[in-house]
């Protein structure tokens, strides 16, 4: 995961005061610790609820609407250096924080590659107090960057954005802290707008999959295998922070007929995008149905609904057709 450029600017907020930007005077030097920090950032960022989208274009010829996007173009075209570019970004983020929150943090920005793909990542990180052991084997206080706490974070697939035919999902950003106004302000600062509703698209994809399984009238074991294949593929893409593609998913579901699910999507009116950011919460709900009330706990694989398990909506009852052997024996003994 080569890091091309990296830097940290501090946004310092004393109690009740306007944030002060403490800009870095130089980029970070390459080190194993920096590589580990990037890996940790990627893991933490991929686990966050995110919006997916693209830069807003203010004119028909593609002119970008935000200073951030225009300055990013200048940086990529080498008419602006990385330190200057990131310092201007940090100044605007400090202003945004001052309008909505009272907190301090370190703005981490990295230009890096994963394989042939180039990314720009940024995150406003905070500290947590911990403990360490020094050379004299004494306990000492240690301040650590808290990767789990990202007030604001974003990642840009620069290779995809600058390609000849970019999708509308080359930009992703967090939206789970600080309230709606801060999230809207962050998107405006980036000049970003959502290109796809990740949770809605994931729900529609799962509905299309359920329809496909029903249409194919698959045996229960085959249905289970395809469900697991879908969840495994989607979860892997989520861990990598990459969208699912319908063509790739179709190949995963059936190596003998790799176009079967793709054709099912294409021939029906689901309105799905070719690339779908996986929403982990929706995927987790699809894998299993679970519930607990009044001393009764029920959990079963979602694909069993309609076959081994039926729901009688009129009388609000679950009908279990195949009682597990161990449970059956326990009931008989009572």
TrEMBL record:
Signal peptide: none
Top-level lineage group: Bacteria
Major location (coarse): cytoplasm
Coiled coil region boundaries: none
Keyword list, A-Z: Cytoplasm
Subcellular location: Cytoplasm, Nucleoid
Family from the record: Belongs to the YejK family.
Identification of the protein by name: Nucleoid-associated protein YejK
Organism expressing this protein natively: Halomonas aquatica
